[in-house]
Amino acid sequence: MAESEIFKRKPTIALPAPVVIIAVVVVIGGAVAWYWNSRAGQQGPGGSVVTAEAKAYVRHLRLSEVEMKAHESYLKQQVVEIVGKITNDGNRPLKLVEINCIFYDPYGQVVLRERVPIVGRRTGGLKAGETKSFRLPFDNLPGSWNQGLPQLVIARIIFG
Hints:
Elements lengths: L2 H6 L8 H27 L8 H6 L3 E12 L5 E11 L5 E11 L5 E10 L11 E8 L12 E9 L1
């Protein structure tokens, strides 16, 4: 091989297969995270907006017997449950009711805001004049949580 041929050849870098696989996984993970964040941004800060009709109907919904329980799961993980009842004192059937559960730290700062359905497909809706029990398990509460009952705020209503 002549000396001029050596200088013309471009060096190639061979990356080990695990490095290439990790890089591909990171790129795909970033794309998925971007997608979910962009979808959340389209809905606004608290998900879909409560309609004026739903805001007016909130006065017909009553939460009662709400209490908090804690137990250890089979995986030795602490699970906190919020249990209670919801009553529809209005004259319209409901297909879905979601609430925001807002957990605070000892200084009153929000440490977790989680939106969960208390009436939905799984529970079969809520007829006018009906009362149903609900159970909300949480296994992801931050250590800075103040151990108090979270604030429960109606976030969404879909009429049936």
